[in-house]
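Appendix B, Record 12. Input sequence as logged:
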Amino acid sequence: MPFLDPVTLRGRLVTLEPLSQDHREELEDAVRDGELWRLWYTSVPRPEGMAAEIERRLALRDAGSMLPFAARRTSDGRVIGMTTYMNADAANRRVEIGSTWNAASAHGSGTNAESKLLLLGHAFEALGCIAVEFRTHWMNRQSRAAIERLGAKQDGVLRSHQLMPDGSLRDTVVYSVIASEWPMVRNGLELRLGRRG
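Logged structural output:
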C-alpha cells in the first residue's frame, strides 16, 4: 500500500478533498480573493496558472512525493484553497505539510486551523508518522505565527535556501511536530476550534 493514498478528510468547518482538475475554476475564484499571488514571499499561483499548478501537484502525487488537497468550506460549500502533504519520506515516516494557501476571506475563520488538525491527525494516527514538518519564508510572518500557534517548534533556518520567482533568495524557516508532541498539539487545536462554537 502506498504511503500517501488519496483520502478525504472531513471536519466541522472544512473538508479536504483529493485535488483534481475539476477544482480548477473554483480555485481560480478562490485565489482572486485577496490576490495572494502578489505577495512576493509566497508561491501562490495566479488564476491563469492554476491548471498548470494542479498538474504539477498531480504529477508529484503520481511520483509518490505529494498528496494534494482542495479545501472546501462547510458553511457555503466553496473551495477556499489548497494544501498538501509533500516531501513524503515513507522509509522514515515523515511528511511536510505545505504549499498551502487560502482565500483572504477565509483567513481567521478557523478553516486553516482545522485543516492542520485534520492533516496532523491523519499523519500521526493513520500514517504512523514520527514527525511532520512545516516550512515557510523567513519574511512570511503571518505564516510563521500560524505555525507557531499550532505548537510546532522551530528546528532552524536554511539560509539562502531557494531562489524565488523574482530572483530573490528565500531563507526557509523549518518547524516540526514530533509524535510525542501530537497529543498536546491536538488538544491545543481542539481548544481553539471549540471556542468557535
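DSSP finds five helices and eight strands in the chain.
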